[in-house]
Amino acid sequence: MTEETMTAAPEIKAVPETMNAAFDEFMSAFETFKETNDRRLEELSKKMSADALTDEKLERINKAMDEQKRVLDHLALKKARPALGRSSVHAIDAIEHKQAFENYIRRGDESGLKEIEAKALSAGTGADGGYTVPDEVDSEIGRRLAAISPVRALATVRQVSSNVLKKPFAVDGMSTGWVAETGARAQTATPQLAELSFPVMELYAMPAATPTLLEDSAVDIEAWIAGEVDIAFAEQEGAAFINGDGTNKPTGILSYTTVADDSWSWGKLGYVATGASGAFAASGPSDTLIEAIYALKAGYRQNATILMNRQTQGQIRKFKDADGNYLWLPPSGPGQAASLMGYPVMEAEDMPDVGAGSYSIAVGDFRSGYLVVDRTGVQVLRDPYSAKPYVLFYTTKRVGGGVQNFEAIKLVKFAAS
Q1: Which tens digits make up the pLDDT trace of 118-167?
Q2: CATH number of the CATH domain containing 216
Q3: Tens of pLDDT along 347-362?
Q4: Range of the domain at 52
Q5: Burial of 125 (C-beta count, 10 Å sphere; 0-12/13-18/19+)
Q6: Mean pLDDT along residues 25-54
Q7: Dihedral (CA of 216, 221, 227, 229) sign
Q8: Structural contact between residues 409 and 247, judged by C-beta atoms closer than 8 angstroms
Q9: What is d(CA 305, CA 338) in angstroms, rounded to the nearest whole number?
């Protein structure tokens, strides 16, 4: 065994301060990954088995790449966070609203908010003491969620002011026919419409703070609320958009009825099987991915994204084409997505690991295929009584979601058929 083979996989010893530095580390790890995997494949061809130390090193590099990708994602998210405050024609009103909201958060003083909400005739005023979060906080939560939750970032997002969004969808196109210049024109068939319903569900978080923290004027209360709430909301949303059962939560992509793509019909999601239970096929493992991509119609395929978790992506990194080129390619630059056969790859940790019968990969035009419905407004209810000495902030947001176009998303099933 050579000294090079036994070299430990690259590890992150310090968190890089810039995206460029993190990206350079990631690319360096990928080059080491390719060298080690090439050595493993060479050992397989010569000895019919890979050295255990080579396999162990490859897995360590794979995990190190995942950690470095997490650092890249974190830095990209940090860079994407908008600065609070805006300079606009509404600056005075915004400052006044912000100050009144601060008074409510810190001391429970509702008078300023009542006056402002009365002047603005806002629909967000609630008789139970809840008040609409100021614009700066509301918009920051929304933008940061888009960066954290991959499905929200990929899907169509609609703002509604009611409890449910009903969307008509043309299942069949309008019928046509050829006719002679003077021939009779018979009535053609009427297009068939389906009504899709997307109810909004309540998502909540209830962070707590001590009165001392609230009285400390150095604390940015709005940033604190956003920091507490956006992570909790993003985690819950991300899980629901993938696996939600539609009961008190959105209906996730994997909760719909699935059928083999050859038997697809509206209202179901089609899948392509790998041909092996709980694994890729031993021969031509990437063929299933190609089939899933080309199961999409051309209009959806050109905007397709591949959705999977890190564990699944770790297996696919080892795949090569017939010419020996790696199918998985690293991001082309900081803040960009990795690609697989030319299509962007998005990581969603709520996608299941590869297992018997699992749907571990989704391929599709998610902007056409999945709809996220947000009810306007985020509500905050200040509660200084239930958990003394802490002050609770019951923060709610109403959100729904579901598949809106069953043609635009295909799944990969890890099963024989």
Answers
A1: 555 444 444 444 555 666 667 767 777 776 778 999 999 999 888 899 88
A2: 3.30.2400.10
A3: 999 999 999 999 999 9
A4: 19-80
A5: middle
A6: 83
A7: positive
A8: no
A9: 11
Total structural domains within the chain: 2
**Tokens 């392509």 sit at which residue?**
272
What single DSSP character describes residue 283? S
69 and 139 inside one domain: no
Tell me if 103 is assigned to some domain. Answer: no
Residue 148 located in a structural domain: yes
Task: Give the pair of three-digit tokens for residue 333.
Answer: 């630059």
Count H helices and E strands in the chain, helices first: 12, 16
Domain end marker among 42, 63, 80: 80
Indicate whether 66 and 199 sit together in one domain.
no
Do the beta carbons of residue 277 and residue 416 sit within 8 Å?
yes
Structure tokens at 207: 């962070």
Mean of the per-residue pLDDT values for the chain?
82
Question: Does residue 283 sit in the same domain as residue 415?
Answer: yes
Query: In this predicted model, what pLDDT tens digit does every residue of 222-250 receive, in sequence order?
Result: 677 777 788 888 889 989 999 999 999 99
For 120-123, which contacts have Cβ atoms below 8 Å and span 24 or more sequence positions? 123/161, 123/377
**178 found inside a domain:** no
CA dihedral defined by 111, 88, 393, 125, rounded to 10 degrees?
A: 50
| Over residues 66-77, mean pLDDT | 74
Distance CA 290, CA 74 (A): 31
Residues 154 and 55 reside in one and the same domain: no
Q: pLDDT by residue (tens digit) across 279-312?
A: 999 888 999 999 999 999 999 999 999 999 999 9
The DSSP-derived string for 374-410 is EEEEEEEEEESSTTTTSEEEEEEEEEEEEES-TTSEE
